[in-house]
Structures are given as C-alpha cells and as structure tokens.
Design brief:
The chain is α+β, with helices and mostly antiparallel strands. The protein has 18 helices and 34 strands. The strands form eight sheets. It has a six-stranded mixed beta sheet with strand order 8-9-7-10-11-12, sandwiched between helices. A six-stranded antiparallel beta barrel has the order 14-15-21-18-17-22. It is flat and about 160 Å long.
C-alpha cells in the first residue's frame, strides 16, 4: 500500500476545532510579549519592540493556514542623540529665555504613596503587602495670648515692672517680638528681643496697639537673684569642748626670757648642741627664734627671745604663745631691768614659770644673793618653801642641763598639753622675713591641727598657699604637728608678726576674704576725720619750721623693723622731727635709693646688705647709706645725726672793758684815748659804748692803735686809741665793752 506524502496535513479532531475556535487570535502571542506587558505596567510606557518575532518553523502536517494578525502601530522614531557641542551649550545655558533660573523640581503626586506598585520581586509573593503608614504632620504653633486687664473705662491695661524688656512687652500684647522691634525702628530705637527699652517708648508702642502700660514698683531687693556670699574664717577650736578620744599629746612650747647677755641663746645651744651665738652680731640675740629638740622620744619646742630693751614686743609675743617660761638669770649679775619686764610678760600671759640660774661656774657667782632677790619680787624658790623651780646650770660646762630638761618635761606632763591633730589648722606667726629666692617667709608655731603642703590659708589681711614647710634644721617636711615650729613659704606679702595663720577650705575663699580685709583697711585710712583748729594750725606751722631727719629703714626681719622703728619714734625732741619715710624687710635696693634721693633722706640698714645696683645709684645720687648690726649703736648714731641738724646757739661772751680817758679830734672824726681795765680789746671782735650803764652804740672796730702802731689786741692795764666804725661822739668816762659770739651745739 503506497504511503502518504510527508507534506500532507494532519487531520484535526472535532474537539481541537472547537478549542481553536474559542481562543481568540490576539491571545496567541509569544511569551516575550507577555513579559513586555508586565514591564510596561510598572514603567508606565511600552517597551521598545523590534517587531513581531518571525516564526521560521514549518507548520505541522495537515495544519490549516492561520489568518495573519493585524499590523501593530509603529512606535514614534527615537529622538536623535545630541552631539557633544549641543550638550556643552545646554550645560552653559543656565537660564531660560525669561532669564529665570532653571529649577528642576520633581513632581509630587499626593496619591503616589498610596498607588505605588510593589516591587517586581513581590508580584509573585502570595503574602499581602504591608499597609502604608500615613504621614502625620506637626501640630500648628500655639498662638500667643495677650495678658492684660480691662479697666472700668474699658481700657486694656498691661502691668510690667521695670526694666521693660521687648520680649516681655510682646508677650503681654500677644505679638511676636519682631513686630515690636520693627516698630521701634520708627522711634529710632534699635533693640533686640532681650534688650530693655525706655518706659516712654514702651507706652507709645502700647498706645499704638490699643493698650495702656502701667508700671509696677519693684520691691526693695526684688529681682536681685544674686545672693551675696559671706565668707568667714573658721572659729578656733576650744580644747575643753573636744571629745577626749580625738585629743593627743602635743609638744610643749617653752620660752627662754631674761636680761641681755645673761646666756639664753648659749643655754639653748648647749641643749641643742649647736652654735647659734657664734653667728650673732655683738654676741647678743636680736631676733626671735624657734627650735625643736627630742628628749626621751618626745619633742620639746623652744623659743629664744632677745633681751635688749628695744625688743619688748618680741618678748611679749613669745610669752603669749608659750606654755612654760624659763627665766634665765646670770648668777654673777642678778636681777636686771629686762628680767623684771620679762617676768611681767610671763605673769600677764598666765603661764607656768621656772628660773634657770646660768653662769654658776664663774668665780663671781652668788646664788644666795640671786635667790634672795627672787624672794623679794615674789618668786620664792622650792628649797626656800616656795613654788618656783630654781635650777643651777652652766651653758659653758654643761652643769645641770640634764636636770633642766627633766624638770621641763615633768612640768609639761603635769600640764597635760593636748591638741586635736585633725582639726582645722591654726598657727601663730612669731617672725617673718624676706628671703631671696623664696619670697616672704614666716616662722610659725602650730596651735591646732596639722599644717600640710598645699593648704590655702588667710593671715590677717593677707592670703597664701603653703608651698613648702622647713623645720629648724633646714629640712623640707610635708606636715607639721601641733606644738611644732616651722618656716612657711607661700605668703602673698610680708605677714605681720603676731597674726594667726588660719587654713580654709578653698583658695577662692581666702582670696576673697583677703580682698575684703584689705579694702576695709584702705577705707579706714581714707576716712580718718581731719578737723582743723587754731591750735592744730599753729602746731603745723611750728612743725614746718622744725628741722627733720628723713630715714628709709630696711631690716632683715619683721620683728626688727618693729623694734627699730619703735626706738626711733621714742626719741623725744621739740627741736627736730624724725620722719621714717619707708620701713620694710629685705636688702637695700635701687628703689630705696631713688626714694631717699628724691626726699633728701638717708638710708639705714639693720643686718642687711646693699645690692650692687643700689650701691652704684647711691654713689651717683650722693645718698648716704648707713649699715648697722647692733641696735643700740644705730639708736645713738641717729640721735647724733638729729642733733647735728640743729643750728648752733649763738651767745655773746664779754672779753674785756676799756674806759675813755681823753677824746682826740682827728681828720675823720674822734678817737677815744682809753685804758683797758679788764680782759682784752680785740680788733676782730665787736664792741659797744656804754654811757651811764646804757648802750649808746654797737659796732665793729675801725682802728685799734698802741701809740702810732696798728695792733690787733691790747691787754689789761695798757693804753690805746680806739675808733669805732661810724661813731665819733665819745665822752670821757665812757666804757667800751668788747665781746665775741660763741656757738654752742644744741641738744635734743
């Protein structure tokens, strides 16, 4: 059976024909076109098509020819790609034809967020899309509500207290501050929101907006938010009020007092095994010093005071800070004036008293005589039935020193001297000086608490911060316990001797307190009342006619300044004044010389040196600089200098008389022929003519002749011719009295 050709079409079943008829021709599109439709839905435009895909495959056998699909409309041709020159020109063309800048704004579609399609990756995702959160806009700003009161007459009244601030005024009227600022410009007032304006301008602004401004009186002190801080130094601690468990035993403070050259410093040297006396001028102490020794493991503080009469204030300070006073008396000298004065200071301070009889090794020592003198002034020795411990010692041989130490330690234990080492530190200044490289340095004794490096303090009107602490051996230490002496470095200026060093919490507080005290001192000086009276006027005229010795005083320590100045001011004189222009601690410098040169003063230095520059300037300015190391020499020299300023007194001294026997006429007048009755007639001196006891002429000699010779002198019993200058009216028995002027130095 012959086979069918391969090109024959395959016959369709009836079912295939029905399905083919139901499906439209447009739905039979290739898969590429379906994807293109999905993309076009997302991008909102049709994708570029390259035309329908050509089907090069052969139809199956027996298939019927399909009708050709309708031709798709051709897409508009793509715009031509701009050239490089066109793109450059477009970039340079920043404005349109209407000269407005091009602003590229992205069109905002309000429904874009709600109608946005999900991304392609979520098209086939069966999960539903998340709900879109709507944008919540901020609430509108609150409207400022005016704050006013309505009066009975219907006026809008605004109450404000001066000063009137622009922002407050705007808030009261319910306006923005910038509106008030713009209206102020019309009144030629340029202000910001936080500035105050005049009340008249504010009233005009309020009147313009229909308001009336009423000022409220500010109460006294109202509106002042700054609270004045009152800084007070800490109160001193009372030992009796402190709990017993806080108190600890402290070092006793023992002061050696007595007359000058009775061996106080030598006794201390023997106890400390030092040689302080060897370095003192004249072998006498002229400063107050504090030292510390250890006995049986416990410290003892010693204070050495000067014995000279000029240092009474130093002795008083030593007695005030001490616990026990040791009255040193030389066994060969007995009780002297300064011994009695030291005893008075000790009794005034109310401290324990002991007596040390020094120089007992000398042959002239008379111990019984000294004890008898003590009995007379009320200091009965223990061995005589009294209460005063009297010990016989010798600083040179060391006799009785151990007994002296034991007795002092026993007395300290009986007194039970205690202090709180953790209390607020307080110390007393017993001496101060200016040291090169260190500045103001003060010797202090700690009264309570423990003084440490770095603590701020107030000392009288001055402030400071402890920079360094140095003990009596010259060693730097970090802490000083109660009852111990030390040198403190860190004062703002030279402290006054006797002031108290009080430690405070902050450096800011001590500075502020110091400023307040200095200001108070300045006001006291300025507010001194000066009342002029007739007596004061005459006194000032008399003082202006007096001679004055002007002095610039420089000393090594503050105590010496006080002592020397006191001695100089105690020099009493009705004829000469002593003016101390400047007194200070430290070496003599160039400014001191210039001050002395401008004031016509002399410079006196006590235990100080002269700087090289000052020495050169003093020679150039011819300023006298006097240096002393012993105080009584200084006082004597100043007294002599004051007396040297006084003009000497001129006094007449009669040296002879002559009686006129006969009068001779000469060409130029008359000559009295005379006989010298007593004394001598001297041609170089003056003479007066006495007639019946009354002086009729006083003048000098014109000629004095002996016979025909001119002579200078005619002695008693000899004859001579006397002619006085400008006088010719001689009468017999006139007396010619010859006298001279002698100068006598005045005394103060």
């Amino acid at each position: 059976m012959p086979s069918k050709p391969s090109s024959a079409k395959k016959s369709k079943s009836p079912t295939d024909e029905v399905v083919e008829a139901a499906v439209p021709a447009d739905s039979a599109k290739p898969k590429k076109e379906v994807k293109g439709e999905v993309l076009s839905l997302i991008e909102g435009k049709k994708p570029r098509s390259r035309g329908p895909a050509k089907d090069h495959s052969l139809p199956p056998l027996g298939a019927k020819n399909k009708p050709a699909p309708p031709p798709e409309p051709e897409a508009p041709p793509a715009p031509a790609k701009p050239t490089l020159d066109e793109r450059k020109a477009a970039a340079l063309n920043l404005f349109e034809d209407d000269d407005k800048p091009k602003v590229r704004r992205r069109p905002v579609d309000e429904n874009a967020q709600a109608n946005a399609l999900p991304p392609i990756s979520l098209l086939n995702d069966p999960t539903p899309p998340r709900p879109v959160v709507p944008i919540v806009h901020a609430a509108p700003a609150e409207v400022t509500v005016p704050d006013f009161e309505i009066s009975e007459s219907g006026e809008k009244i605004i109450h404000l207290k001066p000063p009137i601030v622009v922002k407050d005024l705007a808030d009261k009227m319910g306006l923005k501050p910038f509106k008030i600022i713009s209206e102020l410009i019309a009144f030629k007032v340029f202000a910001s929101a936080d500035k105050a304006i005049d009340i008249e301008i504010a009233e005009k602004i309020c009147e313009k907006h229909g308001f009336k401004l009423e000022r409220d009186k500010r109460e006294k002190g109202g509106g002042v938010h700054k609270v004045e801080e009152v800084i007070v130094e800490p109160v001193a601690q009372v030992v009796e009020e402190v709990a017993e468990e806080k108190l600890e035993l402290r070092a006793p403070i023992i002061t050696f007092m007595g007359h000058v050259d009775h061996g106080k410093t030598s006794l201390l040297d023997a106890l400390r095994k030092t040689q302080v006396t060897a370095g003192e001028a004249g072998g006498i102490t002229q400063h107050i010093g504090a030292y510390c020794i250890w006995h049986n493991g416990k410290p003892i503080t010693f204070i050495d005071t000067p014995g000279h009469a000029a240092f009474s204030a130093m002795r008083a300070r030593g007695a005030n800070v001490t616990d026990i006073v040791v009255l040193v008396i030389a066994a060969d000298d007995g009780i002297m004036p300064q011994t009695k004065e030291a005893l008075s200071h000790a009794k005034a301070a109310g401290v324990q008293l002991m007596v040390a009889l020094n120089k007992c090794d000398l042959p002239g020592a008379n111990i019984l005589r000294v004890k008898s003198q003590l009995q007379d002034i009320g200091l009965a020795p223990v061995d005589w039935g009294g209460e005063i411990e009297v010990m016989e010692v010798s600083a040179k041989t060391g006799l009785g020193l151990d007994n002296l130490l034991e007795t002092m330690s026993l007395q300290a234990e009986v007194l039970e001297l205690k202090a709180d080492p953790k209390a607020s530190p307080r110390a007393t200044v017993i001496e101060s000086s200016m040291v090169a490289g260190k500045g103001p340095v003060a010797t202090v004794i700690i009264g309570q608490g423990s003084l440490k490096v770095g603590q701020p303090f107030i000392c009288g009107p001055l402030w400071g911060k402890v920079k360094a602490l140095i003990n009596d051996r010259g060693e730097s230490i970090k802490e000083v316990l109660p009852g111990m002496p030390c040198e403190v470095i860190g004062f703002s200026d030279m402290p006054h001797v006797g002031d108290e060093v009080v430690v405070m919490n902050s450096e800011r507080d001590v500075k502020k307190l110091s400023e307040e005290r200095l200001e108070e001192i300045r006001h006291k000086k300025l507010n001194v009342p000066r009342r002029s009276t007739l007596e004061h006027l005459f006194a000032s005229i008399e003082d202006s006619n007096k001679k004055a010795l002007k002095i610039v005083l420089k000393c090594d320590v503050q105590g010496s300044v006080e002592a020397v100045a006191k001695c100089l001011n105690d020099i009493q004189s009705d004829k000469c004044n002593l003016d101390i222009l400047h007194q200070e601690v430290g070496a003599i410098n160039e400014s001191d010389v210039l001050l002395a040169s401008a004031s016509d003063a002399i410079i006196i230095g006590f235990n100080v040196k002269v700087e090289n520059k000052a020495l050169t300037v003093s020679k150039r300015e011819t300023v006298q600089v006097k240096l002393y190391s012993i105080i009584y020499e200084l006082i004597d020299q100043v007294k002599e200098a004051m007396a040297g300023l006084l003009d000497p007194l001129t006094r007449e001294k009669v040296i002879g008389h002559a009686r006129v026997k006969q009068v001779f006429k000469v060409n130029k007048g008359s000559v009295g022929g005379s006989v010298v009755t007593d004394g001598v007639m001297n041609r170089k001196q003056r003479a007066r003519v006495l007639r019946d006891g009354q002086a009729v002429y006083d003048g000098g000699f014109e000629t004095l002749r002996r016979f025909q010779d001119e002579v200078n002198e005619v002695r008693n019993g000899m004859e001579c011719g006397i002619k006085l200058s400008g006088f010719s009216d001689y009468v017999e028995n006139d007396v010619i009295e010859c006298y001279e002027f002698e100068k006598i130095a005045q005394t103060l």
